[in-house]
Amino acid sequence: MRLVPELEWKLGESAWRVVSEPGGVVTVWLKSGPAGLARDRRWLLALAEGALHRQAIGLAVVPERIWIPDWLVAGAAEAVLSSGERASLQDSWRRSAGQAGRMPSLIAVLTWQGGVQTATETGDARTVAAFGVWQWLRAESRGTLAWRLFLAGLLRGQAPRPALNAAYGARFTGMAGQELELAWQTAAAGLARVQVLPVFSAAESRVWLDYMDRLVVLDANDGREHAVRLSEVWAERREPALRVTRERRAAGLAAEFARAHPFYRNAAGSLGRVWLAQGTGRETAWREALAEWRADRAAGEELERTSAALLDGTVR
Question: How far is CA 299 from CA 130, 139, 207, 259, 272, in A?
């Protein structure tokens, strides 16, 4: 990724540029700008397009034949933007979807071309519809590979409807165009009415907390990267990079706290207290919070294993 100051930007009216090379290298040229939601959305749109370019190359699509659907770029960016610290943007999306009434037709969304670089405002009709399709088709995959197969088909240049039929099989194959459109409009209306954020499963909560506590650092002595636990760092806790990372993670933890599974809710709270103690510099409080975090995480894992065993026994 290359970030270019606005005064040095030489790519005209475009807000970003993605360049793919035959060897598999993908470069994203990003125009800088004042901090804010519009800039963050623009940067995420650019990074989403770059990531999708990389996936297309991984599917053996030659660079000059890569075509990334605009709705896919917009949906991916919005999915990232409305998670973590800005989970409340899910509410904003539902409000915009509800106010829109009838969504743009499914075929109009899937064939959206042009204008994605200007879709940076909250409530943009195309972005609202794109994120709706993103949520709907991901949910329709129901734990199968359908969503990934659909994306692979699109990235290989397959037309949307054949790609949808091939990936989802009987779910959509027998539907006439009007039936498919009705299914989409019904799903969009349902998504707009959902009033609460979904709760992570126990496994998702465990992985999420471990991810929040994991940090990869570069050792200046040997030039190698090492994974460390942010909660276990004390001597270097005042390092600017660690302090900023800790603050950001704490904000994300607070934003997603309500989504943590009950098995790991205590662990989420105690992890936050570890970081708080590191910030205040109270070593005794940090050691106590660290022990509590480890115990709460272990308790959550034990509850997860026990409930899984009980459910397995019930099924048998």
Answer: 40, 31, 15, 18, 17
CA dist., res. 154 & res. 144, Å (int): 17
Residues 272-294 pLDDT 10s = 999 999 988 889 999 999 999 99
- Give the CA distances from residue 284 to residues 274, 277, 279, in Å, rounded to whole numbers and listed in that order: 11, 9, 13
C-beta of residue 99 within 8 angstroms of C-beta of residue 188? no
Amino acid letter at 17? R
| Tens digit of each residue's pLDDT (9 = 90 or more) over 184-233 | 999 988 888 765 556 788 888 999 999 999 988 777 777 788 888 999 99
**Nearest one of 64, 182, 168, 44 to 116, comparing CA atoms:** 44
How far apart CA 177 and CA 154 sit, in angstroms, is 19
Burial 88-117 (b: 16+ CB within 10 A, else e): ebbeebbebbeebeebbebeebbebeeebb
